[in-house]
Specification:
The chain is α/β, with parallel strands linked by helices. It contains ten helices and 14 strands. It has a six-stranded parallel sheet. Strands 7-10-11 form a three-stranded antiparallel sheet. α1 crosses α9 and α6 runs antiparallel to α7. The chain is globular. The protein binds nicotinamide-adenine-dinucleotide and (2S)-2-hydroxybutanedioic acid.
């Protein structure tokens, strides 16, 4: 019998978690033979609702769910965890500016970074989902000096999956026949969804679709997909976000296939001229848990300009919360 693996999920009573927790308990992340213990973190007022979610988890009678800890204390939630899904964050209300959201959520991620630093397993893999995800991840890692930047990542896999799906639909092929799209930069409207290196049934994507569609339909559709879902549903994407979180973490553990890459927000090492020390989404390959940026891709002027635009936004976000960076 395998030993249970400890997984923390924050914002556990929220909408993304309402999908994510059940995917974890079904074995979609680590497999159907790997026991898990869930450490669920919420703010105190949400603990009663979280109790209800836990009742439902119990009612699934999952053979791999060997325990559930619920708490409003990050140091209990992150104690000895191997994986942490940082989903909990306050969503923007109508009266809030983006910079207000940055300030409120930034404080959450500095507390959680410190707690991870103190009590998490030293090999913990952290995924930040809560928005603004890239900058929240930067705050968490800079408050965790005893962990490495490589312990931290932020989620652009939902954007990556959106890009795969849009391109597959346009080319009338299966999603599995599309490879190597890239999301560069921030998980925001400035992200650059790039198909210049993508393959559709082993042919270059840009030999199959025209540049006008790429520039004026594909890019804005992927950039604005989150907002479009919010408009249609009245709530932000939840099941697809949970699915992307599982995909992201599973790729980190299982690795990427030969010749294929995925997009992941990671600590920039300066690759492609991006300022080192930003959490920037790159195309990556993964082997034995080690994430490597895909090197040597040709970047034309069109791409360079878009990659820099999203980099500039990340620098601005970083300067708005610089008092929280240690
Ligand atoms: P939600 O409001 O339904 O749930 C968020 C939960 O977090 C709430 O239950 C809240 O009580 C909890 N929370 C707030 N502060 C907390 C704290 N300090 N510790 C623990 N829990 C805390 O929101 P949701 O729809 O589940 O979305 C969660 C976040 O994910 C939002 O920031 C959303 O914008 C973001 N998101 C990111 C992506 C992405 O691709 N990166 C995609 C979708 C949503
Ligand atoms: C998404 O991409 O669906 C979320 O980040 C929600 C948003 O604000 O766009």
């Amino acid at each position: 019998m395998k030993q249970p693996i400890h997984i923390a999920v924050t914002g556990a009573a929220g909408q993304i978690s309402y999908s994510l927790l059940f995917r974890l308990a079904a074995g979609d992340f680590l497999g159907k033979d790997q026991p898990i213990i869930l450490h669920l973190l919420e703010i105190s007022p949400a603990l009663p609702a979280l109790q209800g979610v836990v009742m439902e988890l119990q009612d699934c009678a999952s053979p791999i769910l060997h325990g559930v800890i619920i708490t409003d204390d990050p140091k209990i939630a992150f104690k000895d965890v191997d994986y942490a899904f940082l989903v909990g964050a306050r969503p923007r209300s109508a009266d809030m500016e983006r910079k207000d959201l940055l300030q409120v959520n930034a404080a959450i991620f500095s507390v959680q970074g410190k707690a991870l630093n103190e009590v998490a397993n030293r090999t913990v893999k952290v995924l930040v989902v809560g928005n603004p995800a890239n900058t929240n991840a930067l705050i968490a890692l800079s408050n965790a000096p005893d962990l490495k930047p490589e312990n931290f990542s932020c989620m652009t896999r939902l954007d990556h999956n959106r890009a795969l799906s849009q391109l597959a639909e346009k080319c009338d092929v299966l999603v599995t026949e599309v490879k190597n799209v890239i999301i560069w930069g921030n998980h925001s409207g400035t992200q650059y969804p790039d198909i210049q290196h993508a393959k559709v049934k082993d042919q270059g994507a840009l030999s199959l679709v025209d540049h006008n569609w790429f520039e004026n339909t594909f890019i804005p559709t992927v950039q604005q997909r989150g907002a479009t879902v919010i408009k249609a549903r009245g709530l932000s994407s939840a099941a697809s976000a949970a699915n992307a979180a599982v995909d992201h973490m599973r790729s980190w553990v299982v690795g990427t296939s030969e010749g294929e890459w995925v997009s992941m927000g990671i600590y920039s090492d300066g690759s492609y001229g991006i300022e080192p020390g930003l959490m920037y989404s790159y195309p990556v390959t993964i082997s034995n848990g080690k994430v490597s940026i895909v090197q040597g891709l040709d970047i034309n002027d069109f791409s360079r300009q878009k990659m820099q635009l999203t980099e500039t936004e990340l620098k601005e976000e970083r300067s708005a919360i610089k008092h929280l960076l240690s």
